[in-house]
Specification:
The chain has 461 residues and is an alpha/beta fold. It has 13 helices and 16 strands. Helix 2 runs parallel beside helix 3, helix 9 packs across helix 11 and helix 11 packs antiparallel against helix 13. Bound molecules: adenosine-5'-triphosphate (ATP) and magnesium ion.
């Protein structure tokens, strides 16, 4: 049992504390009204011994404050004032008993016990319906242990907590789904980027299959099967072109031999001879086209080329000499700027084919009395640079990239005039690629055409 003793007489306070503690009560003390109220608001006491004449706030005011604030602890007034009026005032203010000073300790103890007994009998009776609680003594209604009037604040607090909780949960869920989605989508991204990498040039590449035979495994293996089929039909297509051109070569050659023989026969009418010459020309162009087609399809089927030591300096000189007569006939001035002893590892025959095609173009798409410059030098990083410059009609900027496509010719009229099939540069590009090099052309309408080839000295494509 805990008792609060409020008195400004410190000797009395000490004495009372001593006696009450002897009786096994826990004792707390206050020397003025303000201190008493502070303690009453903080702790729950079983009984209060309250003096009336107190500094700061008098006892009667303390009593009124207590009762107004629902502190229903039994109060025993202890005062020097012993007249009836004071007793009435005290009891009216909410005191439970009254004892005038000086008092007998035994009487005080008896009154304390009586008060405690009464307060025990007078314990709060609670009526409960679900979470609603009615205190019959204080007439206070509470819900979930709180006075109903405080519920508004609680509801606001509850809503705030739910909102904060929901927000935190949403953020967490968004983050979690982002992480999970990232993890789930990673293999799909890998499959996607690998599938993008595979094109007609890299059709032998395949998507690596995962360890588990799940949906992604099935997707990757279906894509791989599709690439198998594509590779097979690409291969068949290339083989078909190669076989068709090969099959055409012999009959065309036979026809040419026959036609060339027929032209030289005696007693042929002049008109008929002219027609034979024209058709022989057509046959020669056809033979050239078939040869180009065959070469290109064979190159397309290849992954690599021969590797032997090739001296590019000698190769250029050889090709240029082959074309000496054409240079002279077209009065084209040739300027050579060649570094001697430039060697690379590659396929001599095919590199020669490249040079022939390029020199052929530089001569064909030139003007009489025009110019050609050929330059050969070594670059840093073990690379060789070969460039061919020629005067002539030039290539319009828009056509620059397309001239490497099969059968692409700048302006149809040029092909009629020059008789090209549009496969020369395509073959050159493929040969350079097979050597691990690159080719590009700089030109514009009416300007010099500048063809650049960069080849690695040792690496093969
Ligand atoms: N050095 C060049 N100067 C100007 N135009 C060029 C040059 N080289 C190529 N071209 C243009 O690019 C086109 C494609 O050239 P490519 O060598 O591939 O085919 P082609 O010469 O027409 O035929 P082919 O070489 O198969 O006999 C040509 O039609 C030509 O208009
Ligand atoms: Mg050509």
């Amino acid at each position: 049992m805990q008792i609060l003793v409020v008195d400004d007489d410190l000797d009395l306070l000490e004495e009372l504390t001593h006696v009450l503690q002897e009786e096994k009560y826990k004792v707390d003390t206050a020397a003025d009204g303000e201190q008493a109220l502070d303690k009453l608001f903080e702790h729950l006491y079983d009984i209060v011994l309250l003096d009336i004449m107190l500094p700061k706030i008098d006892g009667l005011t303390v009593l009124k404050e207590m009762r107004q604030n629902q502190i229903n602890t039994p109060v025993l007034m202890l005062t020097a004032k012993g007249d009836v009026d004071d007793k009435i005032k005290g009891l009216d203010s909410g005191a439970d008993d009254y004892l005038a000073k000086p008092f007998d300790m035994a009487e005080l103890m008896a009154r304390i016990r009586a008060l405690l007994r009464r307060s025990g009998e007078n314990k709060d009776i609670h009526l409960r319906i679900d979470a609603i609680d009615l205190n019959t003594k204080t007439r206070q209604v509470t819900k979930v242990g709180k006075p109903i009037e405080e519920l508004d604040e609680d509801i606001v607090e509850l809503i705030q907590s739910i909102a904060v909780g929901l927000l935190a949960t949403t953020i967490f869920l968004v983050w979690l789904s982002y992480m999970i989605a990232g993890k789930v989508l990673k293999p799909i991204r890998t499959i996607n980027s690998l599938a993008r990498e595979i094109n007609d040039k890299t059709l032998n590449k395949r998507i690596p299959l995962g360890e588990h035979q799940d949906e992604l495994y099935m997707l990757a293996s279906s894509l791989n099967q599709m690439f198998d089929r594509l590779q097979y039909s690409f291969q068949r297509q290339k083989e078909f072109i190669a076989s068709a051109s090969h099959e055409l070569k012999t009959p065309i050659t036979l026809l040419l031999i026959f036609m060339e023989g027929a032209i030289h026969r005696e007693n042929l009418p002049a008109k008929f001879r002219q027609r034979l010459i024209r058709h022989t020309d057509i046959l020669r162009r056809m033979r050239r086209l078939v040869k180009n087609l065959l070469d290109l399809s064979i190159l397309e089927l290849k992954d690599s080329v021969e590797s032997e030591k090739v001296c590019l300096f000698e190769l250029v000189q050889f090709v240029v000499e082959e074309y000496q007569e054409v240079f002279a006939a077209k009065k084209i001035n040739l300027e050579l700027d060649l570094t001697t002893d430039v060697n690379i590892v590659g396929d001599r025959e095919r590199l020669q084919r490249c040079l022939i095609n390029l020199v052929d173009n530089a001569l064909k798409y030139n003007v009489d009395g025009g110019e050609i410059k050929i330059k050969l030098f070594e670059e840093e990083d073990d690379k060789v640079h070969l460039s061919l410059f020629n005067t002539g009609p030039g290539i319009p900027r828009d056509d620059l990239e397309r001239v490497f496509e099969q059968f692409y010719r700048v302006e149809k009229s040029r092909s009629i005039q020059y008789g090209g099939s549009g496969l020369g540069l395509c073959i050159v590009k493929r040969i350079i690629e097979l050597h691990g090099g690159k080719i590009y052309i700089e030109s514009e309408q009416g300007a010099w055409t500048r063809v650049h080839i960069i080849l690695p000295k040792t690496r093969r494509g």
